[in-house]
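## tool: complex_structure
## caller: assistant
## args:
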Amino acid sequence: MSNYLLIDFGSTFTKLCAVDSINESVIGTASYSTTVETDITIGYHKALEMLFDKIGKVIDFEQVIACSSAAGGLKMAAIGLVKELTVEAAKRVCLGAGAKVDLVFSHHLNKSEVNQIVEKKIDIILLAGGSDGGNFESVIYNARLLGKAGIKVPIVYAGNKSAQDEIKEIFDEYQINGYICENVMPEINVLNIESAKEQIREIFLKQIIEAKGIKKIEEQINKVILPTPLAVLEAAKLLSEGYLNEKGLGEIVVVDIGGATTDIYSICTTTKRSDVIIQGLEEPFAKRTVEGDLGMRYSALGIIKSLSEREINFIKEDKKIDIIEEVKKRYNNVTFLPENEHDELVEKFLAEICAYRAMHRHCGKITEVLTPMGKVYNQIGKDLSEINYVIGTGGIIIKSKYKYDILKQTTNILNNPIELRPIEPDYLIDSEYIMAAMGLLSKIEPMLALRIMKKYLVNIRGNTDELSE
Amino acid sequence: MFNVIKTLTKIGENSLKTIVIGVIGADVHAVGNKIIEYTLTKSGYKVINIGVLSTQEDFINAAIETNANMILVSSLYGHGEIDCRGMRAKCIESGIEDIFLYVGGNIVVGKQDFSEVKRRFMDMGFNRVYPPGTSIDEALRDIKSDLGE
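## result:
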């Protein structure tokens, strides 16, 4: 017997996935509302009952592990010095650690910014600034200001190493719950994610899940080990790179359109071309971006914000969709599910906008520069044009009849040929909704997780949009 | 506040003088850039090389993050004057008004009287301006006198 139970305590649903390691298969999945406000174990037990009903018997599990984005997920504030450099580096570290970056600040903080940290109930602050041996004045100023304001949430310091001793003294002086890590940007344009990311994960497991009432579940399961987005990132990395002799899928992009955010993960190198000049901060091989204004329910209003009145009228006439009404309906009723063909079409249309926009912000851009020495190419961000697969996950895509159309939007260059979007990828769907679970499983049995993903992700093709088994 | 200033001087004393170098504008001349990096590093300066195709903002951002003492701009393709315009103003806006700004290379088009060119760049806020064909060793003497050994 070696069955594993993998749990994702999501913001709205607690999702269970039971895995049989001998047959390398998913025994069953089940989900029930997350009940973190009252008692997280209630939802878990309901889901477990449903799972056993589905399987037809009660089974034992060798290990039960979980990831969580319940109770608002992991909310972070990223503080740096210059917007394009340490601020961006700090932001990428937070996203790479599976956090939501609710606040982003640069240069010297002011009191109202510090107040926002308190008001927005930030879980962890990442304080960066200065390359090693570079600016130290800004981080010292900011640390002192946070200390004086009596900030009690954990602060991860990942700025100029030359200021570490002073920062430590400030942490002691103001009794700050502080941690010292390697610099997120040790040299100009060099990104160093791992140290701070690992520290954030540790704090999340030791303190944040406790504070959010999630820890309680650990009396009944083995452990909560990751924030959910990090589990998905780990799964995507494994699926891309492969494990030992088991080959991966190569370079991939994962798209997750949710109620509150649209997340994009890309696992690939910055470029494969030798004739381009790369500008800006180094890009992570496994990169995650989160769009907080693009979502199908909580953030639905964000979708119309960027549309002009003319576009809204055009949509009304051309597609027969009153987008303002539809968006409000979804925002006011976040548990809304499509009931008829019209609803389905509206969902498709909104999801297409989310996918298109999120990819617009995630992918790199390339421009031709004419110089006296001839034409050169200048690239900012990641080149996704040679990606093998675009993978869709998350309830909206999985349940939609129009999976292909939605995912296809990630490749739509429209009138923006400078965008380095995927060109002709194949499309896969995480139809059993197992990616987060496989990210968890990859921490104990990577080979098993990889094989199950390869088995359960299904290919979709255009036009018919039928799942090809 | 006094404590902060004290710690700042303490950190500052131990570090090398930092110089940000790069090639500005739509200019991809990389060889001179490497020679400058080599020479300055060998002379005991901490060199931050942001490379070719750099904008004014790239130079300034790097200078802020690294707490640099000097920005040394190279321009080899003749459009240096357009590319460098307003750079001192941006430094002032960014809070690094006291930074040394050097520029050198083929900074203007055609055979112009260099004293005139130099005056124009000085008016733009550059501290030192070098004519075509200047070796980095010449500039090094000025760097030493401006920043100290």
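## assistant note: Confidence is low (pLDDT under 50) at residues 464-469 of chain A. The radius of gyration of chain A is 23 Å. Handing back to user.
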